[in-house]
Amino acid sequence: METLENSELCFPHLFNASCRRPTRSHSEAILIYVLLSSLSLLTVFLNLLVIISISHFKQLQTPTNILLLSLAVSDFLVGLLLCFQIMLIEGCWLLGDGVCVMYQLFAYIITSSSVGTMVLISVDRYVAVCDPLLYTTKVTHRRIKVCVVLSWFCSSSFQGLNLSDNLQHPSRYSTCLGDCVFAINYIAGLADLMLTFIVPITVIIVLYTRVFVVAVSHARAMRSQIAAVTLVTVKKSEIKAARTLGVVIVVFLICVSPYFCVTLVDEQTVLNASSSAFLICLFFLNSCLNPMIYAFFYPWFRKSVKLIVTLKLLRRGSCEANML
């Protein structure tokens, strides 16, 4: 009996000081490992394809694609962080309190940077559709790069301040060895909710709605002036634009809303990473879906994937290939 009880501890030799592992059936544990491992590998793989495509082929290095590159980098890092989440699902954190806090900090920075990049993408598309004549003068490579750097810097600074108490006292909220717990007070949690969820979501919805309205109005104007053959193309592009914008907004809301709703309800947000695994994994799932939503709808991405998989990008001068 004593041996059985000790086997349920994260650190059996520490007895009462150690946390206990959650009791799960063998089939349930295998299912969790398979799902999280698959999600991690798929997220890393898909975003790595986007990173290689935009970084290697010069023709793809447009202002919009620079934003996609920033998004892919943050989502790629999220895929790597999922490896730590697998450890938390097991219920025992074996890397120490300091690494636990750094993991949480990087998770917050990366996800908030991803949200910030999505806002920049919505602004980019808004200018391109609603003010196309001035797009090339307003949206330049230099301005986009500055915005990306500022997005990452602001995310790092804000989240570092948000989790400063946890950084100063890594084990303050741990109740036993093998636990990985972080805490955010109500004010900091409310600020994070506003700046990482409510404000960005509002901006994205408003801008994308405006883009959709302008696109529909342009399509209606064209239908009254151009030939029937072109009308079919306009209808298809209108439907595709509506579907893409709808997928972007709905999937993002589905993935991130549950986590922030829990944060909003709690007066004192104290999350045990093991008990909130589902919410966090759903939050991270968006990083796997982003390259599908933002990149798989572009023909140049499918073409670049073929060149990458067949290793043709290793040929001399492949970076100058025509991808559009």
**Mean of pLDDT:** 77
* Beta-strand content estimate: under 5%
Helix content: over 70%
Give the SSE string.
HHHHHHHEHHEHH
Main-sheet strand order equals 1-2
Uncertain runs are 1-6, 227-239
What is the CATH top level name? Mainly Alpha
Number of domains as seen in the coordinates: 1
Q: Using DSSP, what is the number of strands?
A: 2
Separate helix tally? 11
The whole-angstrom Rg is 23 Å
**Which class best fits the helix and strand makeup?**
mainly alpha
Largest sheet: 2 strands, antiparallel
CATH topology: Rhopdopsin 7-helix transmembrane proteins
Overall CATH architecture: Up-down Bundle
Q: Which term fits the overall shape?
A: globular
**Fourth-level CATH superfamily:** Rhodopsin 7-helix transmembrane proteins
Could you walk me through the main structural features you see in this protein, from its secondary elements to its overall organization?
By secondary structure, the chain is mainly α. It has one domain: Rhodopsin 7-helix transmembrane proteins (Rhopdopsin 7-helix transmembrane proteins, Up-down Bundle), CATH 1.20.1070.10. The chain is 73% helix and 2% strand. The protein is built from 11 helices and 2 strands; from the N terminus they run αααααααβααβαα. The longest helix is centred in the middle third of the chain and has 38 residues, at 186-223. The N and C termini lie far apart (67 Å).
